[in-house]
Queue: 2 jobs
Job 1
Amino acid sequence: MDNDFKRGEYVISTDRTRLDLGVVHGFLTKSYWAEGIPREVVRRSVQQSLCFGLYHQGKQIGFARVITDYSTFGYLGDVFVLEEYRGRGLGKWLVEVIMSYPQLQGFRRWILLTRDAHLLYKPFGFRLLANPERWMERWDAAVYQRDQAR
């Protein structure tokens, strides 16, 4: 079920067919969290996630995705607004739409990772881990560099 949300001349849509993979990959491959990510990995991640595209006059200017089981858990990731559109409250609106999206209600746990956007997420109830000693990760920081070398 695709939905559109409008605010002035901006639209947020869950219609995956509207996404401009070039914009999404172009931003992510230069981001601190996905630097060098191959386009094919971005394509697969979009196929397997609930995606939210942010548009201005038909042009994609932002993105976010949720990895979820639609019942208990959601991981909010790859959130961005292109630099020339920042400072207009669009990132906050994008997170607001995601957090109020009907199919994403009633989860026991939401998580995300951020280096510098804590203030964006705090109003939506995100906090530092209550019990970080319970969390474990398997992290391969060089996976995209190795994939490109093959």
Note: The mean pLDDT is 95.
Job 2
Amino acid sequence: MENNRPLVRPALRPFFQILGAASFVFGVLGAFLPILPTTPFLILSAFCFSKSSPRVHQWLLNLPTFGPMIKDWENNRVIRPKAKIWAIAMLSALIWLSVLLAEIHILLKGALLAIWASVSLFIAFQKSR
């Protein structure tokens, strides 16, 4: 298993491992629940494990369902068109429902809309396969 990525300092590895595991769980849940996007969580999980556990990172890359999606991102910074559509649609639904229905401060609503716009634009302008 060849891995040229530098690992983080030993003190930070548990943080990256916990974040990687949590984002993997959310990514898998997102494959079954329409309110969670799968792709961003799996990309975050792969990043965290590339920094903290090369063995788990390699395991992620070899998963038959999610591995190709992760490899697309790591090798070419590509997000598949279907994943883009789902990610933006779910993000839009959740953010806009929060902004329109939640009784939260106007500045928080503005922050949510700024996050929605920036993340949606980032996803939209990434290369597609």
Note: The helical segments are 13-32, 38-52, 54-61, 67-76, 81-101, 106-124.
